[in-house]
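Exercise 7.
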Amino acid sequence: MKHKSRGSLSAVVICIAFACMSLAGLAFDGGRVVSSYMTMSDAAQNAARLGGQQLVGIREGDPHIDKDSAVTVMHTYLAARVLTGNFDIQGTRATVEISQKIPMRILGIIGIGDRTIRVKRTSDVVDG
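Solution. The predicted structure, written as tokens, is:
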């Protein structure tokens, strides 16, 4: 009878260790993903606001964002935060899109790969 249950404790210990490592990975890597998302969201919104401040043509009755200066300012802002993005200027609207790959440090051990986070923020200049 003793031989039938031989090694069953090892299987239980392995399952518990795997579950604990998965839980630790979710907490650690999940926290990094959320933190990165928030940082990227703030940076994208601030870059879009800076782009929106490059408004020209107000006195002529044709307000619009100067594309060259807006892209320069937005690029400089993101570069100072070690981020890169895509910029779209349409009239009085400045849009910034940032994407970044986040490596899974603990979850990568159990086969979960990198996650790509994408953030898109827009600033629209309104009259008022």
